[in-house]
């Protein structure tokens, strides 16, 4: 729990800083783009968390015996499903919800100041839109994560495999002195 609190603190500060700096001198198109980026990032991590939590080891054992790239990494994820799911859903997913809410209010405030429109109506419309997208997207994401868990976890395993290959190549090149 302490580790999750620390990770949440660091990631939340980082995303809030990025959001604040990115929104300082941009137009509305980019501001809404940043806002929806946080919404979709939260949805994406919820899909990943659900897929890892519901995937079965069985197909990955078969793939690993045939040396399918990424299958061993997928097994590693599934065997740590509780931690992976907690990190994806609770840490990143919830942080994105909070940061998107704060970003939503910044965008709504800018709209009110620039166009002299009703503050309450603007906040209601913008926060309603963002909340609807976040909740609806996460509900759809849970279905997708459960339905396509094997494919999603294998894709994640392949991404981890790719990065571990880069890491190993980097270590080898540093040992050679190049």
Unreliable segments of 5+ consecutive residues: none
Whole-number average pLDDT?
88
Biggest sheet, in brief? none
H-E string: HHHHHHH
State the total count of DSSP E strands.
0
User: How large is the count of helical segments?
Assistant: 7
Strand fraction equals under 5%
- Report the structural category: mainly alpha
Provide key terms for this protein:
mainly alpha
Structure description:
The structure is a single chain. The chain is mostly helical and 178 residues long. Helix content is 88%, strand content 0%. It has 7 helices and no strands. It has helices at residues 2-23, 28-54, 58-65, 71-79, 81-115, 119-147, 149-175. The longest helix has 35 residues, at 81-115. It is elongated. The relative contact order is 0.16.
């Amino acid at each position: 729990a302490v580790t999750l609190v620390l990770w949440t603190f660091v990631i939340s500060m980082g995303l809030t800083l990025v959001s604040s700096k990115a929104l300082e001198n941009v137009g509305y198109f980019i501001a809404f783009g940043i806002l929806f980026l946080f919404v979709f990032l939260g949805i994406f991590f919820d899909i990943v968390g659900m897929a890892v939590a519901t995937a079965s080891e069985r197909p990955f054992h078969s793939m690993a015996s045939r040396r399918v790239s990424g299958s061993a990494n997928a097994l590693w994820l599934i065997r740590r499903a509780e931690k992976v799911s907690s990190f994806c859903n609770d840490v990143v997913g919830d942080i994105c919800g909070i940061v998107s809410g704060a970003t939503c209010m910044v965008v709504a405030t800018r709209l009110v100041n620039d166009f002299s429109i009703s503050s309450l109506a603007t906040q209601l419309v913008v926060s309603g839109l963002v909340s609807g997208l976040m909740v609806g997207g996460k509900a759809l994401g849970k279905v997708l994560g459960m339905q396509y868990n094997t494919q999603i976890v294998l894709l994640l395993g392949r991404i981890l495999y790719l990065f571990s290959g880069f890491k190993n190549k980097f270590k080898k090149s540093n040992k050679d002195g190049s």
